[in-house]
Design goal:
The chain is an alpha/beta fold and about 270 residues long. The chain has helices at about 5-10, 50-55, 65-85, 100-115, 135, 145-150, 180-185, 185-195, 215-220, 240-245, and strands at about 45, 90-95, 120-125, 160, 165-170, 200-205, 225-230, 255-260. α3 crosses α4 (about 100-115). Residues about 15-40 and about 265-270 have low confidence and may be disordered.
Length: about 270
């Protein structure tokens, strides 16, 4: 894929922590789903997360109606429709380099997906070198995926529901040094297959390390259905985006999210 094609995709799927351009789209998927409106978490622990902490971390908790929340809905609908069209259930989110906002985008996208009553979602922190998802929900240390991979903890002890229906999180905590070897190990492959096949209508979204910072993302690509890149407006270099696209199988590239867009959109305007 040429850089022009990649940038064209960036225009189609755009998200921003300040402003995101898009078009309101209503999901028209007519497949039959289980009733997910009210889920009882019998094994997954349900935790009380501070709303103040979430707001301070720029997590969209749904108590404020704004353009950013609406645009995440646009991104959500595009993602769900493309995943369903290709019969995909696993999505890895990364960016060319650090600081592009991939983790915050992953979290807010998952929250938006969970608010679709026909869809459930599992967010997995697979940035084994620098796990960060847990820091958005907690101020204290919690069990994470490294405890499952290294210390043989049960998943039931680690998974949590943050009080948002249809959303489950598998956080990280401690860094794993041999991360690329771990990501291609039979243990992780088995875990991915288990997470993927447990529920037919669940999307599994993996927050991955930056693509150009290490080989972790490349080591994991055989085990995931699709990829999505997050780039930062005015910061991500053209050659870094081009190199990232060249490294990935473009047939599995769902799209490119333009984050931290500096363009403003009026309240009653859409593109």
């Amino acid at each position: 894929m040429k850089i022009k094609d990649a940038l064209d995709k960036a225009k189609k799927i755009q998200s921003s922590s300040r402003n995101i351009k898009g078009q309101n789209i209503i999901s028209s998927d007519n497949r039959n789903y289980l009733d997910l409106e009210n889920i009882n978490y019998t094994k997954t622990k349900k935790v009380k997360v501070s709303e103040e902490l979430l707001r301070n971390k720029r997590i969209l908790i749904g108590d404020v109606k704004d353009e950013i929340s609406d645009e995440y809905k646009v991104l959500r609908t595009q993602v769900i429709q493309l995943m369903n069209k290709n019969n995909w259930s696993t999505l890895a989110i990364s960016g060319p380099k650090e600081g592009c906002g991939k983790t915050l985008t992953s979290i807010n996208l998952c929250i938006s997906i969970a608010r679709d009553v026909n869809q459930s979602v599992l967010l997995v922190d697979l940035d084994l070198r620098r796990p960060n998802i847990h820091n958005y929900f907690f101020t204290q240390e919690v069990l994470g995926i490294s405890d499952y991979l290294v210390n043989k903890k049960n998943l039931d002890e680690i998974l949590f529901n943050p009080g948002i229906e249809r959303l489950v999180v598998l956080p990280g905590n401690k860094s794993i040094q041999n991360s690329s070897e771990m990501l291609s190990s039979p243990q992780v492959v088995q875990l991915v297959n288990e997470l993927k096949n447990k529920y037919s209508n669940r999307l599994v979204i993996f927050d991955m390390p930056p693509l150009l910072s290490c080989d972790d993302m490349l080591a994991f690509t055989p085990y995931v259905d699709a990829f999505m890149l997050v780039v930062e407006d005015g910061v991500t270099l053209k050659q870094d985006l081009k190199r990232s696209v060249e490294l990935l199988d473009t047939n599995k590239l769902l799209g490119i999210v333009l984050n931290k867009s500096k363009d403003s959109v009026g309240i009653n305007q859409y593109y």
